[in-house]
Amino acid sequence: MQLLLKRLPTLAILALLSLLAVPHTSQAQLGISRPRGQELVDGIIVKVDNQIVLRSEVENIYGQELARAQGKPLPPDLKCKILQSLVLNRLMLARAEVDSVTVTDQRVNSELDRRMAYFVQQIGSEKKLEEMYNKPLRALKEDLRSQVRDQLVQQEMQEKIAGKTAVTPREVKEYFEKVPKDSVPYFSTEVEVGQIVIPAQVNDAAKQAAIAKLNELRARILAGEKFEPLAKEFSQDPGSAVEGGYLGFFKRGELVPPYEAAARKLEPGQLSPVVESQFGFHLIQLIERKGESYSTRHILLKPATGTTDVSASATKLARIRRQILSDSISFAKAAKEYSDDKVSSANGGLLANRQDGGSRLPLDKLDPAIFFTIDTMKVGHITPPLPYRTDDGKDAMRILYLKSNIPPHQANLTDDYQKISQAALAQKKSRALDEWYDKNRNTVYLEVAPEYDSCKVLTASTTE
Question: Which CATH number fits domain 204-301: 3.40.710.10, 3.30.70.270, 3.50.50.60, 3.10.50.40?
Fold first, then answer.
């Protein structure tokens, strides 16, 4: 299985992580079946123990690559590379069963919630998303559940196989020197942009209303009403509400600390007082304990945010901005201390390039809201507080900082070391996966349909 990242940067892990990355709102990426009249003629083309690869999987990924190419010719062996990548993923799943590599329900649920929140934000509302697929949100999540679990397991296996792989400066230099001169990429204008995000604070009246409602429901349950019907009617956690609030079994450290601390103090059947977490307010009932694991059900209420709360966030950001401009604190330190966006705050507030993990972003690929804001900014400037909506749909305010503006240039080791290093690392990880594949392909039952014999999935891979 030859290096897949070298010619097609996203292909080697496309089948593994296509639904883990921030997606476009297409049916193929959402993982939901096509409308009637658009079904592919399907069938099993590869078996790897109990795992299978369908013809439609290859065709769907090929279609996505075709769309990205925008009329440019694709490599003639692209379908074989896609198939090889899918077979590698299925082999990882098969070996994960043998090696007892698993992921928790909490992690799967969190990933499903993240994806649904993103799709809702992109499409406009839960109702529009449900109308688009003619299914309730909970059914869409269930359609994705097995795919998400498999992909997270594959991610764990890939980390186990190649996670500790690293490259030295010498290896990076050797990698770059092997790139033909006429193939050295030309980078368009790139920028480094930082942000500090502060979410709208919960309106105190709305907060008290949620607490009062949960206390009312608690009194009704203590008076004899069943927990489950009330959870179905009132809980704002769509994933568990349909199950009467049931969350399932979790171990220590798998749920947010306030929830876990309250749940672990309860006896089976007992109700908690109202508990506040980052998700809202909970009424919790312990169901049972099994060793270190415990199961609960809950009713979640999320107070609405008022406009005065956004103003309070803007006031706080304006104060932080003045401190940065007066050199009382650096932007990076302020982001780490105050920003609610944990991903960027861990990087000194700088937004990450999803392709290589670096902080330099192609100007022509920026989110329009950022592009039109920084287009007239000078390097070093910071915007006043601006309205913002987070990936999970919450109202917030943010300030943006233009750290640098890198003009168009031919790739070189001085200016583009991080990008070149990432490419060299990707190649080395791909080789590690190839070697693992060669070592483990004979440990499973592997059968390939005759029509794909030319892809040589059953033969040893070759690494450069």
Answer: 3.10.50.40
